[in-house]
Amino acid sequence: MYETNQFINLSEISLLYHDKSIVSESMWQTVCRAIIKDLREEFDLNIRTKRYDSLPESTRQSIRNYINLYKLILGVDRSGNIITYLDRNFETEIKIYYDGTCQGIKGYCPFDIDYKFLPALSFDHRLERYKTIVKREGYRYIAPKTMLGGSFNGALVKMKSQIGGMDLRCGNCHTFRHHKLYYFARIYNFLKLLSIKNIDKNTSHVLYSVNLLAKQYFEHTKKDIKLSEKNTPAQVLSRIRNQISRLVKKKYVIEYIFGENYLCPICEKVNINDHLTCFEAHHTNEALFENGLQKIEFGLYYTKSIKWLIKNLIAQECIYVCRNCHTMITAVNYNENALTILRNEIDTLYVNNFYDNLYKKVNEKRDIIIHWKSLLKNNMNTFPNPFLKMFDYGESIYSALICIYYICEIFSQDTKKEFFIAEELNYIQEKSSSYFKQYKSNLLDLEYIQYEKRLLQYRGFGFNKDIYKITFEGILKAKELIEERSGGFPDEFKELVSHWEHRNRKYNARKQRLSAFDIVLICIYFIYNKEIDFFMNAFHYIIDKENSYFSKHRKKLLNLEYITENQETANSFKEINITPKGITRAEELISLIKRDYFRKYQKLISDWEKRYDEYLMNHNKKNLKK
Ligand SMILES: [Zn+2]
Ligand SMILES: [Zn+2]
Ligand SMILES: [Zn+2]
C-alpha cells in the first residue's frame, strides 16, 4: 500500500463541501467525522487523524501565542530581552535576561533547547509555591500559559507583574526542578541502577529498598511537612512509598516493552536511567479513539498494576517520548506555521526537518508496539507483575493468610502467642492500616480465621484491639498455598518469609516498652493494695524516680478519673486515692503485662516491694523521733 504523511486540512474541505456555516467546534467535529468516514469507505484511504481542535480561530490564537512567546524570550529585534520584576519584598528589582534558551538547572540545559523548540519552552516562577504566596497576599494568580494570550503588550504587562520573576525552562528541566523526590540522591541512584532483571530476580529486595528509601526521604523532608490528624506520619510515609513504587513500575513497563536503557527516540538525549521522570506515554494512533474509546492518561495511572499498565499501553498503541518531544509532537500548529512564527527561513527549515525526523522515529517505535499488540491478541495474560508475582492480581488475600499462618503458627513457637491483631499483620506486611480491613470479612467468611476476643490496649489510651486466630481450615489452606508458592518461587518465597520474620521481631521488640503512664497507674494500684495512706512522697520513694515523674501524668490520671486528690493537705503530702475506674484499668493492665511480660512484671513488683519496706522503716523512724 502506498503511504504518505500528507495532511488534509479538513476545515477547508468541510467549508468547501458543506453548504452550511460551521459555528461550533462540536458541529465542526461532526462534519469532519463524516468526511473521514467517506474518504475511508468510498476511496479506501487509510487515514489517521491528527486533531479536532484546530478550528481556524483556535489555530490563529495558538499562532498568536507562539509569536508573543517568541518576542518575549528573544526580544522584538531578536537580540535578547531583559525583563525587570519586583522581588518578593515588593521593593527590590530582579532583572532577568532571556535569549531564547532554556535556563535549565543552574544555568545549564542538557537537552539543548532553544527558541526553535518554542512549544517545549515555558515560564517557571522562581519563587517556590508561587501560587500560594500571591494568593495569600491577595493578588490574582495568572498561570504562565495564559499569560501569552491577547496582544503582545498585554502579555508583556502580565509577565512583568510576576513577583520574584520567571525563568524560561524546557519541559524536561521543569520536571527536574519540581520532582524533589526523584532527585533525592538515594532514590535517584536506586532508580538509575534498577532494571527489569533485578526486579524480577529479587522482588522482595526491591520492595524492601522502596520501604527503606521512603523512610529516609520522610526523615529528610519531615521538617517541611505539616503533620495533622488528616496527614499523619504513616499517611505521609505511605504516600512517599507509593510515589517511589510508581517510578519503579514506570521504569519496569518501559523496559519491558522497549528494552533497557531506553532513549527518547526523537531527541535521543533523554534516557530512562538518568531522566525517568521526563518520560511520557504518547498515543500513536488517534483513530483508535474516534468511536468513544477513552484515552488513558498514563501519567495518572502508575498506581495500577504492572500487568494492567503493559496491557493498556499496548492496547492503546503508546510509545514513550520525553516531555519536550511530546510537546513538540502535539504542537502541530507550530510545524505548519513555523515561518509565520519564526519569521526566518533557515529556522523554519530546521523546524520542518525536525518534524520529518520526528514522524519517522515515532513510526519506528510504533512498529514495536504494533508487534506487541499482535502478541497481546493471541495471549492476553502473559505479562508478569513483579510485585504480585507470587500472588496474582486479586490474590493478596492469600498473601495475608500465609502471613497470618506464620504469625500464629511459626513465629510464635517460643512465645506461645497464637493470635494476631490487625496492627501486627499490617506492620509485618508493611501495609497501611486499612490493609487487613480489606480482607477481614472475607477471611472470616471463608472460616480461615476466627474472632477471638477484645484485647485492651495498654500502651496509650483509647484503642481496643481485636484478637484473631487462624482456624484449622485456615492452616490447611495456608499450607497448601505455601507449597504452591515456595514450589514456584523458591528463593523469592524464602526471602519474603525471612523479611516477615524480621518485621515480626521488630514489632514485638517495639512492644517491649510499657508506657510510663501505665507504670505510674500500676504503682498507684500497688500502693493502694498495701493499704497505706498514699501521699506523693511515698509514691516517689517507691517508684524511685525524680519528682516530676508523677506530675507529668497527674493531669491525665485526674482527667481519666483514675485518681482523686485531697485538696486540703499541703502539696507534698497531697493525699491521693485511686478510683474504682482506676482499679479496673490497673487490673486490666496487670493481667496483660503478666501474660506477655511475666518476668518483667515480677521484677517490677519485687523492686517496689523492697522500696516499700524501706519507706516504711524510714517513715516509722521519723514517727519515733516525733
Ligand atoms: Zn532544558
Ligand atoms: Zn514550575
Ligand atoms: Zn526527546
Quick take:
The chain is 55% helix and 9% strand. It is mainly α and 626 residues long.
Topology:
Elements lengths: L9 H8 L7 H19 L12 H19 L6 E6 L6 E6 L22 E5 L4 H7 L15 H9 L5 E5 H8 L6 H9 L2 H6 L1 H19 L11 H26 L20 E5 L22 H10 L2 E5 H8 L1 H5 L1 H5 L2 H34 L17 H15 L11 H7 L6 H11 L3 E8 L7 E7 L1 H17 L1 H22 L4 H14 L6 H8 L4 H12 L3 E4 L8 E4 L1 H17 L1 H28 L1
Antiparallel strand pairs: 1-2, 3-4, 5-6, 7-8, 9-10
Helix pairs in contact: 1-2, 9-10, 9-20, 10-11, 11-15, 16-19, 19-20, 21-23, 21-24, 22-25, 24-25
Bound molecules: zinc ion (3 copies).
One zinc ion (ZN) binds next to strand 4 and helix 6.
Please explain how this structure is put together:
This protein is mostly helical and 626 residues long. The protein folds into 5 domains: 10-47; 59-178, no CATH class; 185-387, no CATH class; 390-511, Winged helix-like DNA-binding domain superfamily/Winged helix DNA-binding domain (Arc Repressor Mutant, subunit A, Orthogonal Bundle); 516-625, Winged helix-like DNA-binding domain superfamily/Winged helix DNA-binding domain (Arc Repressor Mutant, subunit A), CATH 1.10.10. The chain is 55% helix and 9% strand. It contains 25 helices and 10 strands. β1 and β2 (93-98) form a beta hairpin. α10 packs across α11 and α21 crosses α23. The longest helix has 34 residues, at 345-378. The model is unreliable at 380-388 and 457-463 (pLDDT under 50). The structure holds zinc ion (3 copies). One zinc ion binds at residues 264, 266-267, 270, 321-322, 324-325. The site of one zinc ion has 8 residues, from β6 and α12.
